Amino acid sequence: MEKMIRVFDTTLRDGEQSPGCSMNLEEKIVMAKQLEALKVDIIEAGFAIASPGDFRSVKEISRVIKDSTVASLSRTLEKDIWSSYEALKDAVSPRIHTFIATSDIHMKYKLKQTPEEVVESAVAGVKYAKRFISDVEFSCEDATRSRKEFLYRIIKDVIDAGATVINIPDTVGYATPFEMFNLIKDIKENVPNIHKAQISVHCHNDLGLGVANTLYAVLAGADQVECTMNGIGERAGNASLEEIVMALSTRRDYYNAITRIDTTQIMKASKLLTSITGVAVQPNKAIVGANAFSHEAGIHQHGMLENRSTYEIMTPESVGLNVSKMVLGKHSGRHAFKDRIVTLGYELTDDEIDAAFKEFKILADKKKQVFDEDIVSIIERDDQND
Ligand code: KIV
Ligand code: ZN
């Protein structure tokens, strides 16, 4: 039986923490709607207590999102949890995500708390959160550098306190795939009540292993994966959503796992994020890079013409990419423009197309080539102004 893996997207929280990626309220709402269209199971909308802006974003996103769970991050402090609850109140499916560090180095130097105090604080935080919302996720920050015996103990206690999801973050991107596999396997074997909760993983990419570590965790039995679009996030970023999802779907035979994601919405989500943040994706980035589906070498092109699967393990269409890479510029007509809009996944009225086409022409006069990101940005801007 194939296992259903839940996709927890943290583009709007952990992703937003990366330099140059901060978003305003309107941009976050547009992005949240696209994540919902992508069918992510959980959208982490922000860290409600972090700032009034974050609080408002969680609140507004909670109001508009119907088909995904909306989560807000909180430390284990009552004031944080209360703020998350207040922000999440209107969500159809709210989740409080609370965390505390569990590694010796974090407990000693950052928290300045003993392990005993950390367990007490974690249990109290989960119990407090449960008073308001039934879906409570608990994260052991820096789990991969924590002592395993201590992890087993705190995980058991927070599950007894009511945590429904246990997240194992590789906060500093330190783990290797085999370590991640063994950690999840050991938690499953050594925490007596673990069957009462789902296991999640949250891998950072400092050594370029975020996606690999996540996939090994899935092989070991993880139920949920935490990730961001384009892999944005603190330092080297988080595990990238599109890479995890396409690895699971392309190698379904190997991972024996599926997700709910509508993969044809991936390119649109990626380009939307780029247009909002202005942070470009490297051309050779897997799945969403400009070169991910282009074939330059003559021998490859020849093979592709005979049979696409000679050099193509997934189709561009499966991630929502327009195959006929027609370049749009100032000489392009309304017909080609409309065609590209449809390929990008938008349904616009004739009047909306006319308005967007006018803006496109103005931009095309200034730029040699108009990219998909530019078109997405024109459409989304028009949508905001309506
Ligand atoms: O990387 C991390 O440990 C986090 C937690 C707050 C989940 O982002
Ligand atoms: Zn993180």
UniProtKB/TrEMBL annotation:
Protein origin, superkingdom: Bacteria
Metal-binding among keywords: yes
Residues that, per the record, bind Mn(2+): D14, H202, H204, N238
Documented EC number(s): 2.3.3.13
Reaction catalysed by this enzyme: 3-methyl-2-oxobutanoate + acetyl-CoA + H2O = (2S)-2-isopropylmalate + CoA + H(+)
Domain Pyruvate carboxyltransferase: 5-267
Cofactor: Mn(2+)
Recorded GO MF terms: 2-isopropylmalate synthase activity
UniProtKB keywords: Acyltransferase, Amino-acid biosynthesis, Branched-chain amino acid biosynthesis, Cytoplasm, Leucine biosynthesis, Manganese, Metal-binding, Transferase
Keyword set includes Cytoplasm: yes
Pathway named in the protein's UniProt entry: Amino-acid biosynthesis; L-leucine biosynthesis; L-leucine from 3-methyl-2-oxobutanoate: step 1/4
Family named by the database record: Belongs to the alpha-IPM synthase/homocitrate synthase family. LeuA type 1 subfamily.
Function recorded in the entry: Catalyzes the condensation of the acetyl group of acetyl-CoA with 3-methyl-2-oxobutanoate (2-ketoisovalerate) to form 3-carboxy-3-hydroxy-4-methylpentanoate (2-isopropylmalate).
Subunit organization: Homodimer.
Full protein name: 2-isopropylmalate synthase
Source organism phylogeny: Bacteria, Bacillati, Bacillota, Clostridia, Eubacteriales
Span of the entire protein shown here: 1 to 386 of 510
